[in-house]
Amino acid sequence: MEYSTIKIQDNLYYIGVNDRHTHMFENMWPLEKGVSYNSFLMTGEKNIIIDSVHAERFEVYISKIRSVIGDNGIIDYLIINHMEPDHSSSINLLLQAYPNMKLIGNSKTEEFIQAFYKIDTKDIFIKVEDGEKLKLGEHEFTFYKTPMVHWPESMVTYYEKTKTLFSQDAFGGFGTLDGGIFDDEVNWREHEYETRRYFTNIVGKFSQQIQGALKKLSALQIDVICPVHGLIWRKEPQKIISLYDSLSKYETREGVVIAYGSMYGNTEKMADILANTLSKNGIKDVLVYDVSKTHISHILANIWIYKGLLLGSCSYNNSLYPVMEHAYRVLEINKLKNHTLGIFGTYGWSGGGVKTLVNLPKSNPAYDFIEEVVDVKCSPSYEDFQKCIALADEMTKRIRA
Ligand SMILES: [Fe+2]
Ligand SMILES: [Fe+2]
Fold first, then answer.
1. Of 148, 170, 302, 382, which has the maximum CB count within 10 A?
2. Is residue 369 included in any domain, yes or no?
3. How far away, in angstroms, is 25 Cα from ligand 2 center?
């Protein structure tokens, strides 16, 4: 099958693939709108691939490569910015297709290549250091390490001639590239949410390192950004840089996410009273989620940007409701800053829901925690509802302070 190739610049082609069939990214984060694995091919005296794709899409991938360099063309180099298997599981297959291909990465990249794919790298690996320049044919690249954005070996590749940054996971997003691949070919509003969800689910926990990487890269003039997921930025690269900057600084806006787990609807009643009170207080963005129905991946994307968070749970056999436990664990991993947290819930006999949720602000003291939790036996009474109203009033006051 022949593929019409998309030219990004002279000598630079998009050879990425869409994945619409994988249900969960990292087998954990739902992909309702799919994901793209972006890969780039630079042609010239030497043919160079920058980042590859998931091996499951190899058939499409190799067709795209061949449609640029022909069936008899060869790939001389593969620059590996990131070793997570969504970008590296094709390495062995590429080596089978192009046995003389050399691999380029840093020392940690080499360790992962050996450990994941049992490849003997002795004669085929070119190690680069932070800030090192490397000439491949007529093309010169500079490499910058960006550790933990997303993995320890993560680095970015800069092509100075056209001020193009190959940024691997940084500046990426969920969602397939449906037709248009460039920022100026699509409506950003359709992509903003899936980009935020990718950020908050996948790389947000490394926000501090992202801030470090942004600082490091700020010295470069960047006209084009080629991430390994989501849109290619050629018109307004500053837009995606600003979004990543804002999210990794934990900038929040006025609004409250209420996420609850409820078996018989009693904790849900409390969530509704909280939401009504917040609304009466003039808070316009009040987002209520039942954690049994909405995957935490979506809830987290909104928790991240709204200053207020109210977590509610029933108890389950003397501990936290298992569905809420998943949400709790995800929040525990993501050490959110700049958030006000309130807690409510119900219990049958010896509690467990609220009793466990109050450990969250202990694990992350950055929370502005409202100490007055509302813990209710079985179902809320009039007095309990008054306590919920007081909790919502306190939340309103704090997020507006
Ligand atoms: Fe990754
Ligand atoms: Fe990735």
1. 170
2. yes
3. 9
